[in-house]
Amino acid sequence: MTLSTLPACELVERLTRGGVTATEVAQSFLARIAECDSSIGAWQHLDPAEVLETARRLDAADVRGPLHGLPIAVKDIMDTHDMPTAYGSDLYRHHQPSWDAAVVAQLRSLGALVLGKTVTTEFAYFKPGKTANPWDVRRTPGGSSSGSAAAVAAGMAPIGLGSQTAASLIRPASYCGVVGFKPSFGRYSLAGIKPLAHSLDTLGWMARTVDDIDLIGKALSGRALTGLPATGIQGLRIGLVRTYEWPLAEPSTRNALETATELFRRGGATVSTVDLPEPFAAMADTHAGVMAFEAARALAFEHASASDQLSPQLRALLDKGLAIDESSYFRLQDAAVACRNLLRDLFSSYDVLLAPSAPGEAPTGLQATGDPAFSRMWAVLHVPCLTLPGLTGEEGMPVGIQLIGSYQCDDRLLCIAKGCMDALNGALSQSLPVERHRR
Amino acid sequence: MTLSTLPACELVERLTRGGVTATEVAQSFLARIAECDSSIGAWQHLDPAEVLETARRLDAADVRGPLHGLPIAVKDIMDTHDMPTAYGSDLYRHHQPSWDAAVVAQLRSLGALVLGKTVTTEFAYFKPGKTANPWDVRRTPGGSSSGSAAAVAAGMAPIGLGSQTAASLIRPASYCGVVGFKPSFGRYSLAGIKPLAHSLDTLGWMARTVDDIDLIGKALSGRALTGLPATGIQGLRIGLVRTYEWPLAEPSTRNALETATELFRRGGATVSTVDLPEPFAAMADTHAGVMAFEAARALAFEHASASDQLSPQLRALLDKGLAIDESSYFRLQDAAVACRNLLRDLFSSYDVLLAPSAPGEAPTGLQATGDPAFSRMWAVLHVPCLTLPGLTGEEGMPVGIQLIGSYQCDDRLLCIAKGCMDALNGALSQSLPVERHRR
């Protein structure tokens, strides 16, 4: 087993105990990238010599951080002082930020090694970059965190940083068969991340295990990297939420939810169907309106000065946003607040909600990144969400299932997700996506 | 009367009706700047030739925006694609952003003319820039929006953009004798404004009249520039909140509140004392803790890579923030949420709250920008705040009084503030600060 197949927690263990060096780990991931990225195209910027130089410097330093040498892939919507950052737009092709985004600076302070910048859609909206799905290169990896999802899935990085405004973490993670995590809104600093919609934008990340997701959360929170307790799912109260978008769910997603329900029940959890009250029916549209209104403000400069260099779909979003009047926007925000309160009450009866991550398997074609419908509601409700891999669809592609926690109860969600992933993996005895992809 | 003494609303009226040109208005303000800025030092970047060139281009354009040629001063914490932006730090002395901050792009799209960048404290925290108070150059103008406050007070710009995380709009506006407005948290896009604390940072602005404040709010909201109704203050229920910081209030501030109370009563309002419940006693400290925790994340890059180039007071803030553990931070946030709910209930009995804007007159000396104590609580409570000029202290310097509205009821606050300002001005028959300063 090469180093690049190991999960982040095990890499960190070996790196900090001195079993392996940052240089060896970097070499392993660079070899994996050289082996498979020509067909996947996950990286927007990657300079192997620079990576090795940084790894050697880390190894030579007197003090080793708790994430010493851990390679991370950084979505190219996040600023890096030493690598160009183009935000997925030709407008910023040669843009070189003067700083690191807060998340990058924090992880680097702890010893993490930035491998490079991963492909994002244009300004984290819809227009795809060059990345293909590692499981089938004729299919989209999803977006907007396309490159980070593909890199983690293909074993080119153990951790991929991303961000979500609509579905930009959960959907690509589902399509690429990795764990994707969108924390509660507002939990982590977005300094140095290009804004799209200020009441929705959320930093998150992807990995191949729930423990690896937890590792990065603890690191960013400045907590000890103690690991997640294995509590299992015995007695867990799971609410199955098909959502008002259910008609969009394809057989692959319907089957995945059924299989998960069956496996969680076998593991001792109770799974009962939750019919969301009527106000939730409007939440996907509420999200879309809020996002358009705010994006038209956040990208006011680009829209006013270089509209012809924006994609038609982005221009349409910004025009839509400018056409929404402020009082309508406030009504949308009020409706979201009302549903946040209803959802909070719901969590007195359920420990976690189970819902679709995406309509189905990754669609064929690289001209679009798939439908965000199944994430919009949770995004505007600000709750933590996590998609688990392990299940596959009718054509053998990954299909995620989404777990949703109560606002600001991110730790509890991760704990539950670990139990759920064990229940899925134990029953399925399935290999990790990265290994399967190698075959 | 020269053009530079006119309030923004009247300038806009003349500019859009064609009575004067953007070039003539720009020339008038540039003349005023040439006349008085050598002793005040409000500007971080100002290029008169560039300003006149832009004004001529605006005048020559086929289409005139609703803010055609209105000069604005932009705090140097906000990015401008055509002017350097140093964030008040030597670290970014030669920094040239690639974009305009959203607020700048929006106002420019409507025809506004950016005169230049105004002095900010270091990263909008405490270390002062070069600006002096226009009423007495031995005194601080307050901070962090020091240059914008001084520029508006001295008639060098009709509108000054600023931002507030603790007291950065209200305090300098109070010290400089202008109207300062901090909208509800989250109301306007912060894209392109250097973050300091993400759950507190708020865009705001300063002007010489409440109508001018309203003009910019309507413009940024994409609403028609219809003007504020003159509703008066007859029957208005005003709650006088001395706050738990009252022991810090100097005689000048105590007298200003007494005078205001008397004048508002004469105008037909009822003014009754509000004793805030005990949980509010912790809010100033709650604010300080939240700010430190979040600033340590937002400035992680600068702290990690160039700590020696930060001021001792900023380093102390960031070190304090890193020493706060995440669970303590969440407890602070929970306490703030509880007080926000209490405050919302309070507004069923009062139309507006009246409170100190600052401890007193602007302190002597330019080594510090004064105490933010009287704004911290309102900042962490996310409510809209406005400071009104017109009253003076024991040494003849301006002393503001602060009006506080209910969360997201910004329009109502501005309406009330207009009535209150009329009540103050009418009774005092006092000249505008800018005119007084000219004497």
Automatic annotation (TrEMBL), chains A, B:
<comment type="similarity">
    <text>Belongs to the amidase family.</text>
</comment>
<dbReference type="InterPro" id="IPR036928">
    <property type="entry name" value="AS_sf"/>
</dbReference>
<dbReference type="InterPro" id="IPR023631">
    <property type="entry name" value="Amidase_dom"/>
</dbReference>
<dbReference type="InterPro" id="IPR000120">
    <property type="entry name" value="Amidase"/>
</dbReference>
<feature type="domain" description="Amidase">
    <location>
        <begin position="24"/>
        <end position="414"/>
    </location>
</feature>
<protein>
    <submittedName>
        <fullName>Asp-tRNA(Asn)/Glu-tRNA(Gln) amidotransferase A subunit family amidase</fullName>
    </submittedName>
</protein>
<dbReference type="Pfam" id="PF01425">
    <property type="entry name" value="Amidase"/>
</dbReference>
